[in-house]
Design a protein that fits this description.
Structural class of chain A: mainly alpha
Largest interface: A-B, 74 and 63 residues
Helix content of chain B: over 70%
Order of helices and strands of chain B: HHHHH
Structural class of chain B: mainly alpha
Helix content of chain A: over 70%
Number of domains of chain A: 1
Oligomer: heterodimer
Distance between the termini of chain B: 78 Å
Order of helices and strands of chain A: HHHHHHHHH
Strand content of chain B: under 5%
Number of helices of chain A: 9
Number of domains of chain B: 2
Shape of chain A: elongated
Number of strands of chain B: 0
Largest sheet of chain B: none
Number of strands of chain A: 0
Chain lengths: 350, 172
């Protein structure tokens, strides 16, 4: 029994006192980051598929999918790695196994009443001491081994983060091109009609004050009021064809109504096209902005992830001060952008 | 702008596009594509030229997409190698955890054995006290030997464990 205690003390000498950092949140956020990047890819693939599925450039869809596979595998490996890291440190901080040991030690100390090196101490005290020593010994061993592994893994992680960032930049370029081409298609198909729609709408709006003036002129009794209203009506006084003011107003009214009704008919016939153009353009423009924001934020999150890992290399000193708040914020930003991401405009009428 | 001027502008753009594609410079290709888009957005561009510009721009888009995918493919081999390395490191991390769990189990087993031995020792001790007068009590002596063996075994377990931990830490 003396030797058991001596052994525990020996283990204690190998140890230090700082607890290992809790990496469970780091692991969870890495998983979220991995999922967010995959989601970005899926959105790009969906838009690429919509654009090229019925064209002779269909090969682009499969080529992109195959090219992206290593990135997906790397992201999965990143998540698995941080998960293992978190479980490893958690197992040292999880008191369950140690409590079990403590119970056994209490029973042992109670049984061995003549426990030489700790004579006079209560059994529970001995158990607490022994549990502490075992824990410290395990922490020391884990810290040492993890420290060595983290040196190796950080080289891998830093390079991997750079490669994924570069891949994301290429992926975003692909997405941008597809979205812009969708926008251009919409422009070519509907922009001319949309311009005419807006021009005619503007003309009819500009005619409204004159139409109101004509309506009031027709009902006005006082000559002075009629003279005032006439100033707002564009009557055509042609000396070669003299006519009364009432007649000129009547002719102007007929002209205006002809223009107004023709425009109204055009507006009615093209309203759906105009709306599709306006809504479609707005949707695609929003997608372009969101795609760009998503890319910038994902790259920032990957950088924060790699920097956080680099800080883990100092596992001997990080202890409870280990922080990854910046990384958590970066991942949350991506998730918010994803939530705001509208489904792509369906160019079915293209 | 006359029709000839529009045609000349379009021709210049298409030549720039071809140069950019052959140079494989994606940034340059993106710039020319943007110029083509701006050309197309001008409402004064004649319809037939708009159609030509659209075809050119789509070819350029496809070339840029191909180039971007090739970039991603070029990183595949290194990314795969790093993924494999990270997988191995992950296995090592998992191994550390397993070794620690096994250590805890072994300590626990050692404690258990020590407790059984102590209980036996106490039993024999009381028996010895009771039978101290009978110096030829073989049964008691045999039991005593068993207890010593048990204690020795416990001692070995603890010694081995201690040696193992020290060795591993030295190796690490």
């Amino acid at each position: 029994m003396n030797r058991l205690i001596a052994g525990l003390i020996c283990l204690y000498l190998l140890s230090s006192c700082a607890a290992l950092p809790d990496l469970s949140e780091y692991a969870r956020q890495t998983k979220e980051l991995s999922a967010a990047v995959n989601k970005s890819y899926t959105q790009t693939e969906t838009d690429v598929t919509q654009r090229y599925i019925r064209t002779n450039r269909r090969y682009i869809i499969d080529t992109l999918r195959n090219a992206w596979q290593p990135t997906q595998q790397a992201l999965a490996a990143m998540a698995a790695y941080t998960d293992a890291l978190a479980k490893c440190t958690a197992s040292n901080n999880d008191p369950k196994a140690l409590t079990q040991l403590g119970t056994q030690l209490t029973r042992l100390a109670t049984t061995a009443r003549s426990f030489a090196p700790v004579q006079g101490r209560a059994a529970s005290e001995i158990a607490t001491l022994a549990t502490f020593l075992i824990k410290q010994a395990q922490l020391a061993a884990t810290r040492r081994k993890l420290g060595l592994l983290l040196d190796d893994s950080d080289v891998v992680i830093q390079r991997m983060a750079v490669l994924i960032q570069e891949n994301l930049t290429d992926l975003q370029r692909v997405h941008r091109i597809v979205l812009e081409d969708n926008l251009d298609d919409l422009f070519i198909k509907y922009a001319k009609t949309a311009r005419q729609y807006e021009e005619r709408l503007k003309i009819n709006e500009s005619l409204m004050p004159e139409m109101l003036a004509i309506a009031e002129y027709k009902q006005a009794k006082l000559q002075a009021r009629k003279a005032n209203l006439l100033q707002e009506i564009n009557i055509d006084r042609n000396p070669a064809q003299p006519a009364s003011e009432e007649e000129l107003v009547k002719r102007r009214e007929a002209d205006i109504l002809q223009i107004y009704n023709a425009n109204q008919e055009f507006l009615k016939n093209n309203e759906s096209i105009y709306k599709e153009y306006i809504q479609g353009s707005a949707t695609i423009n929003a997608q372009l902005v969101q795609s760009d924001m998503l890319h910038r934020n994902t790259v920032a999150a990957l950088q924060a992830w790699a920097q956080t890992h680099a800080s883990l290399k100092k596992i001997d000193t990080v202890g409870k001060s280990f922080s990854f708040a910046e990384f958590v914020t970066a991942v949350q930003n991506i998730q918010q952008i994803h939530q705001a991401y509208e489904r792509p405009f369906n160019p079915s009428r293209r | 702008m006359s029709r000839a001027s529009w045609a000349a502008k379009l021709l210049a753009l298409t030549e720039k596009a071809e140069e950019a594609v052959s140079s494989k410079n994606l940034d340059e290709q993106m710039k020319v594509r943007q110029e083509l888009r701006e050309f197309m957005q001008n409402p004064e561009v004649p319809t037939d030229m708009l159609s030509i510009a659209k075809t050119f721009k789509e070819d350029l888009s496809a070339a840029i997409i191909d180039g971007s995918i090739k970039n991603i493919q070029a990183r595949s081999a290194e990314l795969r190698r790093l993924t494999t390395e990270l997988g191995e490191i992950t296995a090592d991390v998992q191994n550390i955890r397993q070794v620690m769990a096994a250590t805890t189990t072994r300590i626990s087993e050692g404690m258990h054995q020590a407790m059984i031995a102590l209980q036996e020792f106490q039993k024999i001790e009381s028996q010895l006290k009771a039978k101290f007068n009978s110096t030829e009590d073989m049964e008691t002596i045999e039991k005593l030997q068993m207890v010593f063996q048990s204690l020795k075994k416990t001692q070995e377990v603890v010694q081995n464990f201690k040696k193992e931990v020290i060795d591993k830490n030295k190796t690490a």
